[in-house]
Amino acid sequence: MNILVLGATGRVGSQIVTYALHDRHHVTVLVRSPKKIQINNDNLSIIQGNVLNKDDIVRSMYGIDVVISALNTDGTTTLSESMPLIIQAMENAGIKRIITIGTAGILQSKTAPNLLRYQSSESKQKSTRAAKEHHKAYDILKQSTLEWTIVCPTYLPDGEKAGSYRIGRNFLPDGGAKITVSDTAEFTYKQIQASDYIKSRVGIAY
Q1: Nearest partner of 93 among 61, 124, 125, judged by Cα
Q2: Residues 140/91, Cβ–Cβ less than 8 Å
Q3: Which residues are within 8 A (CB) of 197 and not within 5 positions of it... i.e. 6 or more apart?
Q4: Label partner for 34 (CA 20 to 30 A): which of 16, 116, 126, 153?
Q5: In 3D, which of 103, 56, 44 has the Cα closest to residue 82?
Q6: CB within 8 A of 8, min separation 6: which ones?
Q7: What region holds the NAD(P)-binding domain (predicted)?
Q8: What are 88's strand-pairing partners?
Q9: d(CA 68, CA 63)
Q10: Which residues are 203's β-sheet partners?
Q11: Residues 44-54 as b or e (16 or more Cβ within 10 Å = b)
């Protein structure tokens, strides 16, 4: 399978690249700084560019079967600004499947069903800036024709892969407090072969 990974230099994105290459998929990454990619593999194609540049996005989509976006917010609006460009390029290229990393804040609240978690008392986060940015990206994806899945981890420490965790469609599993980067990357990567959570957000936690 030909996989495009966006956000490949981040904590989750870099592990997704490793998983995909281990399984001998062909991986394309679009990165601003190629020297940050420390992997040497015949199945890895590195394209230097920016997700905010429409031409760079279009170039990176050539021959791709599935897109995984592990772009984070980083205090900017890159996530919400790049999503329309990604969707348009995918639709023009006939690519249907996209899996993205969100945040538990954009899952539905159990205490206030009409709200998302970050809008309710359920969220313990003092700042809602990142969640609002993920919310914008979610709204844009919902309006697309794509087969999207948004993986929504809660607190994301580094750590070993446990290989077992709880998942919930559109909700965070009860009492879920954390999930490691490794397990989040593994679950996200596995979605390239799965159709269980198409057009759904997925809460993931131990």
Answers
A1: 61
A2: no
A3: 149, 169, 191
A4: 153
A5: 56
A6: 14, 16, 17, 29, 30, 31, 37, 70
A7: 7-193
A8: none
A9: 14
A10: 152, 168
A11: bbbeebebeee
Contact 17, 68 (CB under 8 A): no
Tokens 């050539």: give the residue: 62
Give this prediction's pTM.
0.96
48 within 8 A of 20, measured Cβ to Cβ: no
**Residue the block writes with tokens 């809660």:** 154
pLDDT of 164: 92
Position of tokens 């607190």? Answer: 155
What residues pair up with 48 in beta bridges, in sequence order?
A: 31
CA–CA distance, 117 with 124 (Å, rounded to integer)? 9
Q: How far is Cα 52 from Cα 111, in angstroms, rounded to an integer?
A: 37
pLDDT, tens digit (0-9, with 9 covering 90-100), for 19-78? 999 999 999 999 999 999 989 999 999 999 999 999 999 999 999 999 999 998 888 899
Q: What angle do CA 156, 159, 163 make, to 5 degrees?
A: 90
Of 175, 165, 162, nearest to 202 by C-alpha is 165
The domain spanning residue 176 has which CATH number?
3.40.50.720
Range of the domain at 157: 2-205
Half-sphere exposure for 185 (CA within 13 Å, toward CB): 24
- Rounded CA gap, 178 and 1, in Å? 31
